[in-house]
């Protein structure tokens, strides 16, 4: 998928159908499909379909097909998509976002299609029970078709690039239109991150393990809080995913294309998936998006809700392979180049450009240091194992030779 020239991306988010099997043969919901404002903070405006007048959003306000929602600076909205099911879909809309609700219906299955024109959202889809049901989120460079999963998506129109992080489930990435092509080119599994950039007929899609610095930089505090509040459910789903993946190791390359097959590399991936919410909590604190006090408040809310003491392990660090470090370096370079191009374009505003480029460059340098450190650690491990096998005389001679070489 990396470095491919693409005209448009179609991203299909699934809870990995190979994991769960086919959907049960259930009748689609027959009640009206609507989006309802569950919570609004600050000021958000809704432009009703076919009109030009904007209305201020309020709790319990209904959003229908053709409407446009825009959140102001420092404002956010939580939407509930209702279709008569006990498990409603949720969407957290960050400040400075604009969405159009292109399709909301229950005819021949529940259909939801939303265009993210700018900004970011976190989506939790639970209610789809039939293959006739569809939930799609589109940006100008990527479209996401959802089947029971949760994910973060952001789109920056000034650089024409989208970012995507799967928090649970799987993301099938498809390039279209390509007659005769396979239905899915690759997947984004939990803890994996994608960047999809377009322009001048040379659109690019790249993916790797999540870069927590870039993700926490792109995610608004309201998004981070929404993700962390669902920690128990996400952790449970991801443990189930890992258990299923491990039980099917022999078929893993066919059922889970794109995931590491070597045991050592797979162990690193499993570690990152199991600790994804811990890693996000730590990144939220390190980036200053959430304070330690706010994280403790979230932990207390989860504990009160579940009846069990819950806490994030904020001592963990993400584990990356050499390949992942290289992939992240390529993705960082892409984002840096996009920002540099934006800076040289006189038609765009310079808001935040210099600071973001500086941070991206710092991250690239840090990534190089991490790469070198990882190689040194592996060499040290091999060296230590070798020394353990030597007799005392040989060990002394080896260490003396090493000192002489270093002089």
How do the strands and helices of this protein lay out in sequence?
Elements: E1 4-6, E2 8-14, H1 17-20, E3 34-41, E4 44-47, E5 54-56, E6 62-63, E7 68-71, E8 76-82, E9 89-93, E10 98-105, E11 111-124, E12 134-138, E13 143-147, E14 150-156, E15 161-168, E16 170-176, E17 186-188, E18 192-197, E19 203-209, H2 212-218, H3 221-229, H4 231-247, H5 252-255, H6 263-274, H7 276-286, H8 292-306, H9 322-344, H10 353-388, H11 392-406
Parallel strand pairs: 2-13, 11-12
Antiparallel strand pairs: 1-19, 2-16, 3-6, 3-8, 4-5, 4-7, 7-10, 8-9, 9-11, 10-11, 11-14, 12-13, 14-15, 15-18, 16-17, 18-19
* Main sheet overview: 19 strands, mixed
Q: What is the total number of structural domains? A: 2
Report the mean per-residue pLDDT as an integer. 78
Number of strand segments: 19
Oligomer: single chain
CATH architectural label of the largest domain:
Sandwich
CATH class of the largest domain: Mainly Beta
Structural class: alpha+beta
Q: Look up the CATH topology of the largest domain.
A: Jelly Rolls
Contiguous runs where pLDDT drops below 50 for at least 5 residues: 1-31, 175-183, 345-353
Q: Give me the strand/helix succession.
A: EEHEEEEEEEEEEEEEEEEEHHHHHHHHHH
The span between the termini is 46 Å
- Helix content percent band: 25-40%
Gyration radius, rounded: 23 Å
Which strand-content bin applies to the residues? 25-35%
Protein name: FecR family protein
Organism: Cohnella silvisoli
InterPro entries: FecR
Keywords: Signal
